[in-house]
Design a protein that fits this description.
alpha+beta, hydrolase activity, Kinase-like_dom_sf, Phosphorylase Kinase, domain 1, Nucleoside Triphosphate Pyrophosphohydrolase, NUDIX_hydrolase-like_dom_sf, nine-stranded mixed sheet, 22% strand, 20 strands, 4 domains, five-stranded antiparallel sheet, globular
């Protein structure tokens, strides 16, 4: 059966049983020669809220100069896709992820313009240890966080197709390019992404029966439940959709204090902002520490790239919203000394973490709080940061009210002040929208409260593996030192 077929070979005449068997075997050899022997890729979807981390390829490598997810090939026959992802992540970004934090996102067959096939496994990760950095500068020239809903165009077409399929909720897809297709994404070219239909997802599975029952009693049968938790928080958040396409967010708080604060704020203070500027509370379950709110549209402002005039309009609108929030109850006057009770405990926890002169600065500014006269107090948002804001057609929305309480009004300026430290026009726009500047006593209280907040962030971030929080605290203290000088 190993001889080549010839018409005159005995027993191999066309139409004979032996001839048919020989033809089948020959065809099998040809098919075997063409069978796929493609590499397996792993791709990291490192999530920070509604953003994903992308790296720009550099040097003598495929698609140099284009953005791509951190990725790589499996090493050897015995490395599985999760182990390969963890290894590639540490090699490329210098961060550590644990296998239990790796979530399957998408598998996609890709064919390049040159005809090479490969299979890509995409995994979502929202929890990690360390700060992403360029660990292989000969292969990467840039790292950046980009909105998932609006990925940049200067990407590898293969990678962007995977990101789009993941964004749209698909678990499997084909991306089969033609010979004249470019490697880079080109919006003018035909779309080569073809998502593969999957069975209807079990939206209840990720929530558990009790949470799913609570949600469905409020909004009806669920179509999907996507984990949208912020990487550093212990609260859990899911984006829910119903079968009609409506969207909500379900949040389970880390403790009863935060649950009571957020639910109370939504019931008593948030409505003053209006339906376009904040979510609306749909239902709450104190037994499960759960709250269900409507979803506001828009782009997350943390990491957003906007023109300076737009930023100034955003800060002016933020000032207007906080003025409304602060004024929804009659103002009261009190001393701003609430944070002093934790001073010594936080200093002890930050032992060895503070730089030269920082402890003395904190003690000095905290002590001055005790000598200040009463300043205005009222309802606070409690965590005014860009990551808690959405912008949709120049309409600003505030969310995340789990730190809302009555306190010194200037406390709501502390964290956002770090974003205008080198942008005085944004600061001016904010207070223009707010309607007034802080009084001298409020300005001094703000410095003391900022020092206490920075100390709290440094000790908490160090204890919980959050170097970004530690760095934010040091930046605040450096700014306060310059102001004092």
């Amino acid at each position: 059966m190993n001889e080549p077929y010839t018409p005159n070979h005995p027993g191999h005449e066309p139409g004979s049983p032996a001839g048919a068997l020989h033809a089948h075997a020959s065809a099998g050899k040809e098919l075997s020669a063409r069978r796929h022997r493609e590499p397996v890729d792993v791709h990291l979807l490192l999530r920070r809220g509604n953003e994903v981390l992308l790296s720009r390829r550099a040097g003598d490598t495929y698609a140099s100069g284009l953005l791509h997810m951190p990725s790589g090939h499996l090493d050897g026959d015995f490395e599985d896709v999760v182990t390969g992802l963890i290894r590639e992540t540490e090699e490329e970004l210098g961060i550590i992820i644990h296998a239990e934090h790796v979530r399957f996102a998408l598998v996609m067959q890709h064919r390049s313009p040159g005809g090479e096939n490969r299979t890509g496994w995409f995994f979502e990760v929202t929890q990690w240890f360390g700060v992403p950095r360029i660990a292989e500068p000969h292969r990467c020239s840039e790292l950046g966080w980009f909105p998932i809903n609006e990925p940049p165009e200067d990407m590898v077409a293969y990678c962007r197709a995977g990101l789009e399929a993941y964004r749209d909720g698909h678990a499997a897809a084909l991306h089969l390019q033609e010979p004249d297709d470019p490697i880079a994404y080109d919006p003018a070219r035909p779309v080569r992404l073809r998502p593969l239909p999957a069975r209807a997802p079990n939206a209840r599975a990720g929530l558990g029966d009790q949470l799913a029952d609570f949600a469905e009693q409020a909004i009806g049968p669920l179509a999907s439940a996507t984990d949208a938790s912020w990487a550093r928080e212990s609260s859990r958040v899911w984006r829910l959709t119903d079968r009609g396409g409506g969207s909500w967010f379900l949040k389970v708080h880390q403790n009863s204090k935060f649950h009571q604060r957020e639910v109370g704020a939504y019931r008593n203070w948030v409505p003053v902002l209006g339906p376009d500027h904040a979510p609306k509370l749909v239902a709450a379950d104190p037994a499960q520490l759960a709250a269900l709110v409507t979803a506001c549209p828009g782009q997350l402002l943390h990491g957003a790239e906007l023109s300076e005039p737009v930023w100034e309009a955003v800060y002016r609108q933020l000032g207007q919203l906080l003025r409304l929030f602060h004024s929804c109850e009659p103002p009261m006057m009190a001393q701003a000394v609430g944070g002093l009770a934790k001073l010594e405990r936080h200093l002890a926890a930050a032992d060895g973490l503070l730089e030269d002169g920082e402890e003395e600065l904190i003690r000095h500014l905290a002590q001055r709080l005790t000598t200040l006269p009463p300043i205005p107090h009222g309802p606070l948002h409690g965590d005014v940061q860009l990551r808690n804001m959405l912008l949709d057609s120049m309409v600003l929305a505030l969310f995340d009210y789990e730190r809302s309480e009555v306190g010194p009004l200037v406390r709501d300026f502390i964290r956002i002040a770090g974003t205008w430290a080198n942008a005085p026009a944004r600061q001016a726009a904010f207070f223009d929208g707010y309607g007034r500047q802080p009084s001298p006593d409020e300005a001094q209280a703000m410095r003391g409260l900022s020092a206490l907040d920075a100390l709290s962030g440094i000790q908490y971030g160090a204890a919980h593996g959050d170097p970004e929080l530690v760095e934010r605290g040091h930046r605040t203290l450096h700014r306060l030192q310059k102001e004092a000088a």
